[in-house]
Amino acid sequence: MILTVTPNPSLDRTYEVPALERGEVNRASAERMDPGGKGVNVSRAVAAAGRRTVAVLPLGGAPGALVAHLLDAQGIEVAPVPVAGATRSNIALAESDGVLTKINAPGPELSAAEQELLLETVREQSRDADWIACCGSLPRGLAPSWYGDAVARVHAGGARIALDTSGRALLEALGARPDVVKPNAEELAAAVGRPLATVGDALKAAEEVRALGARAVLASLGADGQLLVSDTGAWFGCARVSSVRSNVGAGDASLAGFLIAGGTGPEALASAVAHGAAAVRLPGSVMPAPADLDPAAVTVTADIPVDRELMEPVS
């Protein structure tokens, strides 16, 4: 079982438009409504693969009730933490050329009692988990140290934890030694405080994040591929993608694929790359099922192309 923790979940509405015209009436060609949040997306991808998953998340108001209903309909067990504030609603506008515009609401502010209940629920639900994935931004009221506290409690219970967050929340959690962290290129650059222009730059940055405490780093480099750096080695993975429909949740699908495949080594990296590549070919934040994967399009190598320039360098 893979347990996910989403401290700031959302109700996500995605509209597909030919091209976004600012200041004009834009008519959508398609629309979707999905339960949102990075951990929620990981659970959705795990469930799509036919694996058991439990989602821990604070829920409040009518949007929170709808999130729980949508998750249940997808076969995801929900461990809700009731909160007084309403769960946030987010909007995404996906253009036909792959450009995505997102409007994310801040979400409710959690009280001290609600924060403690969230941590305690994670501890209680983690007993049967193979992996725990803590993902996304922190809602108002939670200090940047909250993820570090979560990592410490999970480790005290003997479980493994993957962390997908950024900024101070990521840096303050590294001292608790999460088993895996999954930054994208921008988050990786921010963690080390310098730009990334090549795959080699990303590799060096991942090694520095490991030196700060992460036991392994799974770095998403967008269209360039993914890096896995751990104490057993470093690998680079990429996949052929014919077209991009939406990159919403692609990183979350990658993390799910990584954990589904055991969460360690080149085989898990190959699964992560396959899931991420499949996700970008699907609309909105739809998570890939096994039939959507194309393992033959994936290449994983220990011969990392350190001199390759990133197609999307981070300044």
TrEMBL record:
TM annotation in the entry: none
UniProt keywords, alphabetically: ATP-binding, Kinase, Nucleotide-binding, Transferase
GO terms (BP aspect): carbohydrate catabolic process; small molecule metabolic process
Top-level division of the source organism's lineage: Bacteria
Family: Belongs to the carbohydrate kinase PfkB family.
Enzyme Commission number(s) from the entry: 2.7.1.56
Residue ranges occupied by any Carbohydrate kinase PfkB domain in the UniProt entry: 15-290
Keyword Kinase assigned: yes
One GO CC term, this protein: cytosol
Gene encoding the protein: pfkB
Gene3D superfamilies: 3.40.1190.20
Keyword Repeat: no
Name of the protein: 1-phosphofructokinase
Listed Pfam families: PfkB
The protein's enzyme class: transferase
Annotated PANTHER family: 1-PHOSPHOFRUCTOKINASE, 1-PHOSPHOFRUCTOKINASE-RELATED
GO molecular function: 1-phosphofructokinase activity; ATP binding
